Amino acid sequence: MLDLDDLATFVEVADAGGVSAAARRLGVSKSIVSRRLVRLESELGVQLLARTTRGAALTEAGATFRDHAARVCAEIDLARETILPAGDLRGRLRIAAPLSFGPTHLAPVLAQLARRHPRLHVHTSYSDRFVDIVGEGFDCAIRVGHLSDSNLIARRIGPIHGKLVASPEYVGEHGAPETPDQLLTHECLVQGTETWHFIDGDRTIPVHPHGRFKADNGMALAAAAVAGLGIAALPDFLTEKELASGALVALMNNYPLTEIGIFIVRPPGHHPARKVRVLAELLIEHFG
Fold it and tell me: pLDDT digit string (tens) for 40-54?
């Protein structure tokens, strides 16, 4: 008889690309994962995975079986949720969250979720890199900013407001830009190749900033702005203290930055897991 844990473990290994990565996702040892795989292959009488030096690759039979196994696991999860007492959550919830915003603003909400649901395992990964939530096995991700086009399903949690900021020293040496086009002559602090959007009446003005200092973390950009390296477009939660102390000053107040949002995104599917829906409601209650 097929074991559901063995099925779920196989799906994790297939999606993660190896035993070690799957073990980290599942929070169990590699030996347990390997034992489950051996048991499943023995029960089926076929080899599902070809072990390689880089991990594990699906055999032809494994590729065919993976989709069926994933559907079975999803249906069982949905069935379990359906019969749970109202409000009761259990199982594991894997969340990807931004490092610049997560530990300070999201962590208390996630702790509240875990406190309300003592049988729910809440696993959060904090990183400012763009996480592939499907490929890396996350149930959902919380993202701040403008969402790029994708097949993920997004729900808006609340607004985030930001400002253009620089240090008084930078302004004293280089002057303060008064219009968006003047930013092109200034040193800007950026994450990569992003576009800044400014509001001018009923229209939006896009600007492609450039500069020699780049970082994939908002706190690092705020520190660079305080150090006088250039102008940054940052959310208010990263600059409130520095603006209050005078370490940073707001620029171009006549051209405010467009509002961005906090979103919870999940893989496509008709029935989002109840644990993801409950998390979304809790986030909206907190930020909305």
Answer: 999 999 999 887 767
